[in-house]
Amino acid sequence: MLLAYRWVLATLPFLVFAVASSGDRSSNFQNCVSACYGDYCHPQTTLSLGLRLTRWTCTDDCKYQCMHMVTDIAIRESSKIHQYYGKWPFWRLFGMQEPASVAFSLWNMYYHIQGWRQLRSKIPSDHPMRSYYLTCAIVSVNAWLWSAVFHTRDLPNTEKLDYFSAALVILYSLYHAVLRLFNQYPTRSREDGRIQRTPVHVLWSSICTVAYLAHVTYLSILPRFDYSYNMAFNLTVGFTHNLLWLLYSLPVSLPLIQRFPFKSKTYRPSYASEVAVFVALTTAATALELFDFPPWGRIIDAHALWHLSTAPITKFWYDFLIKDSLDDGWREPKR
C-alpha cells in the first residue's frame, strides 16, 4: 500500500536522541528525580488506577513530574524547552504519554478498517489482487493499533511491536506492489481451476518472508535497538515501493509497464495520475517529521501532526485501489 512510506521517517527523532536527551541529562532534572524518589517512592506508595493500568512506576511518575517542573521554569524564563529520553514533554491523559498521537493513530486505524470493508464489498471475489489488498489492510490496522499502544506507553516491548508492525506494512506493501505492477499474482487455470503461481511469484514471496524474519531477528537479538539500521531498512523498502507505483502514473509516451493483463502497455486509465498525487501528499505529510518542534500546549507536536495528516490520504488510496481493481483491463476480451 502506498501509504506504507508514511512510516519511514517516524524513526528519525530516535536516531538523534536514542541514547539520552539534553533534558534528562541536566542536573536540575536529575536532582529533582532523586529528591522525588527519596520523598515519595516507598513500598506503601500507590499510584492511581490509570497509571497502574498503563504500567507507570513511582520512578516513572517522578520523572514525569520533574520533566514538567523543569519545563515550567523554562517557559517562565523564555529559555529552550528540552526533550527527555528522546521525547518532548507532553501532558499525559489517563496514563497515555502522548494522547494526541494515540488519538490520531486510532483515527488512521479506523480508516484502514473502513478501507478493508470497502475492498471486501466492492472488489470481485475472484479478483487476483483482492486477497493481497485485504491482507495489507489488516496488516495496516495491526500497525496502527501498536502505534497507539506505543504512544500510550513507550516501553521496550511496545517500541519493538510498533517498529516491527510498521516494517511489516512497508515490506508487505512492496511485496504486493511488485505482484500487481508486474502481473505476478496467482491465476486460476482454465482447465482444472487450480491456482497457478509463477516462479517469480514463489521466489519473490520467499525473499520477502526471509527478509522480514531476518530484519526482526537482527533487531531482537541486539543488546541495544539499532535505530540507524531500522531507518535505513524502512527508507530503502519504502522508497522502492513509491518508485514502483510512480511507474503506474507515467504518460503513454513512457510505457514501462503493462498496467493490466488484458490491455497493451500504452493503455493508461484516466485516474493513473492519482498515484503521483498520492506519492506527493504522502511525502509532504512525512516531511513533517523533519520539522520537529516543541509540542503546542504540550499536546501536539510534528509527529502527532504527521499522524493527523496521513489519515485522510488513506481513504483516497483505498478509493484508487477500488478504481484500479474494477478497470476493464482485468477482463479478458470475449472471443
Query: For the CA atoms, what is the radius of gyration?
Result: 23 Å
In this structure, how is the largest beta sheet organized?
Answer: 2 strands, antiparallel
Which bin fits the share of residues in helices?
Answer: 55-70%
Sheet/helix structural class: mainly alpha
User: Distance between termini?
Assistant: 35 Å
Q: What integer is the average pLDDT?
A: 89
Number of strands: 2
Identify low-pLDDT runs: 2-19
Shape: elongated
- Number of H/I helices: 12
> Element order, helices and strands?
HHHHHHHHEEHHHH
Give the neighbour order of strands across the main sheet. 1-2
> What is the percentage of strand-forming residues?
under 5%
Explain what you see.
The protein is built from 12 helices and 2 strands. Mean pLDDT is 89; it is low at 2-19. Helix 8 (156-181) runs parallel beside helix 10 and helix 11 runs antiparallel to helix 12 (302-325). The protein is mainly α. It has helices at residues 12-17, 22-25, 27-40, 49-53, 58-76, 99-122, 130-152, 156-181, 199-221, 227-248, 273-286, 302-325; strands at 187-188, 195-196. A two-stranded antiparallel ribbon has the order 1-2. It starts with 11 loop residues before the first helix and ends in a 10-residue tail after the last helix. It is 61% helix and 1% strand.
